[in-house]
Amino acid sequence: MTTPWGELELARFPEDPRDRLRAWDASDEYLLRHLAQREPDEPGRETGTGLSGTVVVVGDRWGALVTALAAHRPVQITDSFLTQEATRANLARNGVETGAVRLLTTQDPPPGRVDALLVRVPKSLALLEDQLLRLAPAVHEGTLVVGTGMVKEIHTSTLQLFERVLGPTRTSLAERKARLVFCTPDASLRPPANPWPHRYALPEGIGAVSGRTVVNHAGVFCADRLDIGTRFFLGHLPRSRGARRVVDLGCGNGVVGTAAALANPEAEVLFVDESFQAVASAEATYRANGVPGHAEFRVGDGLAGIPDGSVDLVLNNPPFHSHQATTDTTAWRMFTGARRVLRPGGELWVIGNRHLGYHAKLRRLFGACELIASDPKFVVLRAVRS
């Protein structure tokens, strides 16, 4: 990536030479150009950022922004474990010590004072709302607030949210399909109470979790209702008994893993997701329902770190988007990881949209794939480790 201060080598995480998706986009470049055009930080310098004090970067996708701004010792706040790993790798790749950037998650307490707030607008308006409300007490009248995103990511509702929480907001002209958001903090503004996390009751007729409570932190899929794919999956989960090790892979709010735990109190259930918000939601959902048995909650890169041949059952609803890009890379890594951690005879159960063709991938990996259930939109597939 070319920045006003030089070239940076950047990669996504996990690094894959076959992956043609970049670790930055035009909105990252637009924000950095804007900062460089502000007044110099020191006399005699031709360009600078005008940044001083505590610089907070929210939603940096792969660490491009904090790597470029490492000289200002920024604080990165992210919901993504993969983003944190990418940031560490990109800092090292460009000869920057990891300590130059303070890495926080969306579940950590934010800094007590923010002098510059740079926001990479997320796909989820709810996540943006939660983060702005959490940061609002630390923002003051002198805080520089600039958001950035692609034109298709910035909507009227985005601008209204900045205005409602922080103060008057306007946008820049578009450049290379990217846009900036400028917000002037208003000290007299009293932001509303944070509505997150959100709770709702599940419908009846979906098995062990019928009528149970779901807790959703901001940004987790389907915050106020059960999505139709998960509902279909819940109606066709395997019936298992005994002391089995079960993984809810890509657990989201934990409904599937909680259903497995309720149906089999002897099971040990591991909830795994790369989203800090998701794992917090899964644990809150599990605790809210007083589920018997043992559970573990882990934020991480899929099944990395789980021993080979140590799992009896993997339940999986894989994502097919990486931010705005449609890709099956994550699903493929989840399937290969599942094959590695399953014991002989262990099973992978997958819910997916019919058009994604997961059956072909599972046959390649496991040698066979069974169709358990289908409707016009979804399929439930079962693959067994030989």
Describe this protein's structure:
With 386 residues, the protein is an alpha/beta fold. It is built from 10 helices and 20 strands. The protein has helices at residues 26-36, 64-68, 81-93, 125-135, 156-165, 228-234, 255-263, 276-288, 329-341, 358-366, and strands at 2-3, 6-7, 55-58, 75-78, 102-105, 114-120, 139-150, 169-171, 178-183, 198-201, 213-216, 245-249, 268-273, 294-299, 311-316, 321-322, 325-326, 342-353, 370-374, 378-384. The chain is globular and about 60 Å long. Mean pLDDT is 93; it is low at 41-47.
| Count of DSSP strands | 20
Spatial strand sequence of the major β-sheet: 5-4-3-6-7-9-8
Tally of alpha and pi helices:
10
Q: Measured on Cα atoms, how large is the radius of gyration?
A: 22 Å
Concise synopsis of the structure shown:
This protein is α/β, with parallel strands linked by helices and 386 residues long.
SSE arrangement:
Layout: E1 2-3, E2 6-7, H1 26-36, E3 55-58, H2 64-68, E4 75-78, H3 81-93, E5 102-105, E6 114-120, H4 125-135, E7 139-150, H5 156-165, E8 169-171, E9 178-183, E10 198-201, E11 213-216, H6 228-234, E12 245-249, H7 255-263, E13 268-273, H8 276-288, E14 294-299, E15 311-316, E16 321-322, E17 325-326, H9 329-341, E18 342-353, H10 358-366, E19 370-374, E20 378-384
Parallel strand pairs: 3-4, 3-6, 4-5, 6-7, 12-13, 12-15, 13-14, 15-18
Antiparallel strand pairs: 1-2, 7-9, 8-9, 10-11, 16-17, 18-20, 19-20
Helix pairs in contact: 4-5, 9-10
